[in-house]
């Protein structure tokens, strides 16, 4: 069984749709707070429909609680603090973490998925935090997408929105202003507006992971 993790999700309908996908694929959904909505939200239940009652879901106050409760604190190191890949140890056979972000060089199809792995997605407005991505540089993956110049007919309008400052002197939309500290990230000048809805992205990556482990009805 795979684990799909939503870190600080903001839009209830997205979480409802993802919950529905988790039910039909036998996936455990993890919701890491703070959440941008109540789990009693009508739009959440409407998107998940009757599936929500059958969903295997866990909720956490924050990232540290999620890590602690799932025993994932040392997934990238041996107990002695030596990086597992340096000594030929497969991270002590613990599940792998896959951080999905537009800022990774490696694509999700280049990853190897094992039963029990965690597929991790950030909140709709900002994605996963820079700090978290930098800490897990080798575990970052992205879904290839067309550049804005190809996919957006109104790309100039989008560009103006991203360049505009609000009354407080802040960018009205998230923009990468400098190179991330993680060497795996793309040049921030290549940042694009084009993006998938998180529920679409989650389904794409989850079903590639399921394909790799021989999910019923799929050709391996």
Automatic annotation (TrEMBL):
Alphabetical list of Pfam families matching this protein: SpoU_methylase
Protein name: Putative tRNA (cytidine(34)-2'-O)-methyltransferase
Catalytic activity entry: 5-carboxymethylaminomethyluridine(34) in tRNA(Leu) + S-adenosyl-L-methionine = 5-carboxymethylaminomethyl-2'-O-methyluridine(34) in tRNA(Leu) + S-adenosyl-L-homocysteine + H(+); cytidine(34) in tRNA + S-adenosyl-L-methionine = 2'-O-methylcytidine(34) in tRNA + S-adenosyl-L-homocysteine + H(+)
Keywords recorded for this protein, A-Z: Cytoplasm, Methyltransferase, S-adenosyl-L-methionine, Transferase, tRNA processing
InterPro entries xrefs: Alpha/beta_knot_MTases, SpoU_MeTrfase, TrmL, tRNA_m1G_MTases_N
GO molecular function: RNA binding; tRNA (5-carboxymethylaminomethyluridine(34)-2'-O)-methyltransferase activity; tRNA (cytidine(34)-2'-O)-methyltransferase activity
Species per Swiss-Prot/TrEMBL record: Lancefieldella parvula (strain ATCC 33793 / DSM 20469 / CCUG 32760 / JCM 10300 / KCTC 3663 / VPI 0546 / 1246)
Subcellular localization: Cytoplasm
Binding site for S-adenosyl-L-methionine: 100, 122, 143
Entry function: Could methylate the ribose at the nucleotide 34 wobble position in tRNA.
EC number(s) from the headed UniProt entry: 2.1.1.207
One GO cellular component term: cytoplasm
Family: Belongs to the class IV-like SAM-binding methyltransferase superfamily. RNA methyltransferase TrmH family. TrmL subfamily.
Highest taxon of source: Bacteria
EC class (word): transferase
Domain (tRNA/rRNA methyltransferase SpoU type): residue spans on this chain: 2-152
Gene Ontology process terms (BP): wobble position ribose methylation
